[in-house]
TrEMBL record:
Gene3D superfamilies: DD-peptidase/beta-lactamase superfamily. Residues 350-431 form the DUF7586 domain. It comes from the Bacteria. InterPro entries: AmpC-like (IPR050491), Beta-lactam-related (IPR001466), Beta-lactam/transpept-like (IPR012338), DUF7586 (IPR056008). Residues 13-327 form the Beta-lactamase-related domain. This is Serine hydrolase. Keywords: Hydrolase. The keyword Hydrolase applies.
Length: 450
């Protein structure tokens, strides 16, 4: 699909404005809808000079920390194969680390307490060493594991070694074989190949360029090594929006997209969080997921609006200067080409649960139980108080959110087969407040209502 001429022109203008006003050597971007590129563009010359080679959406840029999302997906693939549990401690698999009590989940969510960077030279600008050299350089906890969000590049170096240890080959080979190749992302590589932009810095007070160094980061490479193109990274945005193919279970992707660790800034209302490998944003009630990336000479962004599935990727070969273009491109699409609501249709499969709907009482609190369009149950108003949605699991239902997330709801029927009690996380709901006809934990006053 493609957007109309006016929308395309607006997107083109916004990208050109970013390159010109922010003095970026080159910039490339793409917008994804329904799993496909609906618009893409590139502006500027890869060397930043007039008359230089023009950038295209097939130009490679270093994507920095977006690399972490590929490592995280590979870790979750290992989990789904039964080779690890994310609640396991890292010392179970890497006994040589001095922080063996940290869990894999804490590493994925940046709540491990590990230091942000290495103790050696500035790893982003110098050749990387081996795993043993990384450990020998000194690695320590800055906080008690599980108590605070503290972004850790080192933590993803550890996860890369975990992948390598369990796969029996380097992390980048595992990612290539099991994620990139199946998705057709052939232009995403650990080091630059053909048609790659050089990493550049632009002088803040003059129109001058400075070439940034680029090296193999070694044991720290899982934190920011990968290179990609706007076309290739758009496939990863479509993956994040749900087009997972056979690379990852849809339920596992949903699990990764639950905000776990809030990036709390004192004095400010939080708008960012971290899931299992993915960054999360909450902007005016809209939920986004993705990741940013920065390395000397490069900036990149990937963001998907979770409700609509619209996504954007953007990359530039500049150390600094990028403004709000990534989110602005998505806003242009949302304002000019809003996603049409899904059409309503009848669902005959709900008939066997129709006798559950209506009022139920938890003590004296009234809740309305309704059948949802997704085939599940809706108890009260989801997101308000103890309202929640439930998905069917055989004869039971499982909470999807809020207080009852993951908790089982069981329907108990009387001798005539009519629903008499709902048992939810040990709480009992009845058709009338403290119904004398059914068993209420703790009993009911023999006087009844008086």
């Amino acid at each position: 699909m493609t957007f109309d001429v006016a929308t395309t022109a607006a997107l083109d203008r916004r990208l050109a404005k970013e390159q010109s006003e922010r003095r970026l050597p080159s910039v490339a971007a793409a917008v994804v809808r329904s799993g496909e590129i609906a618009w893409s563009g590139a502006v500027g010359a890869v060397d930043g000079r007039a008359g230089g080679e023009p950038a295209t959406t097939d130009t490679q840029y270093r994507i920095g920390s977006i690399s972490k999302t590929f490592v995280a997906v590979e870790v979750m693939r290992l989990r789904d194969e039964g080779l690890l549990a994310i609640g396991d401690t890292i010392g179970t698999y890497l006994p040589e680390v001095p922080f063996g009590q940290v869990t894999i989940a804490q590493l994925l969510t940046h709540t491990s307490g590990l230091q942000s960077e290495t103790d050696g030279d500035w790893w982003e600008r110098t050749p990387g060493g081996s795993w043993d050299e990384l450990l020998a350089s000194g690695t320590a906890l800055r906080f008690t594991p599980g108590t605070v969000f503290h972004y850790s590049n080192l933590g993803y170096g550890v996860l890369g070694e975990l992948v390598a240890r369990l796969r029996g080959r380097p992390w980048q080979d595992a990612v290539r074989d099991e994620i990139l190749e199946p998705l057709g992302m052939h232009r995403t590589t650990p080091r630059p190949t053909w048609a790659a932009a050089p990493g550049l810095a632009v002088h803040p007070l003059a129109d001058l360029l400075h070439v940034e160094p680029e090296h193999d980061a070694g044991a720290m490479s899982p934190a920011g090594q990968l290179w990609s193109t706007a076309d290739d990274l758009a496939t990863w945005a479509a993956f994040l929006a749900g087009r997972v193919h056979d690379v990852l279970a849809e339920s596992t992707l949903r699990e990764m997209l639950r905000p776990v660790a809030v990036n709390d800034v004192p004095g400010a209302t939080w708008g960012g969080a971290h899931g299992l490998g993915w960054q999360m944003w909450n902007a005016e009630g809209r939920r986004y997921a993705g990741h940013g990336g920065s390395m000397p000479g490069f900036l990149a962004g990937l963001r998907v609006e979770l409700e609509t599935g619209d996504g954007v990727v953007l990359m530039t070969n500049a150390t600094s200067g990028l403004s709000t273009a990534t989110t602005d491109l998505l806003e242009i699409v949302r304002d000019r080409e809003p996603v049409a609501p899904k059409p309503w249709h009848a669902d005959a499969s709900q008939a066997d649960a129709l006798d559950l709907v209506g009022p139920w009482y938890w003590g004296t609190y009234e809740f309305t139980l309704a059948l949802g369009a997704d085939g599940g149950l809706r108890l009260g108003e989801p997101g308000q108080g103890r309202g929640a949605r439930f998905t069917r699991d055989g004869d039971r239902w499982t909470g999807l959110e809020g207080y009852y997330r993951g908790e089982p709801l069981a329907v108990e029927r009387d001798e005539q087969g009519r629903p008499a009690r709902l048992v939810l996380a040990s709480f009992v709901f009845t058709r009338t407040p403290y119904d004398h006809a059914v068993e209420i934990p703790g009993g009911v006053d023999p006087q009844g209502w008086h």
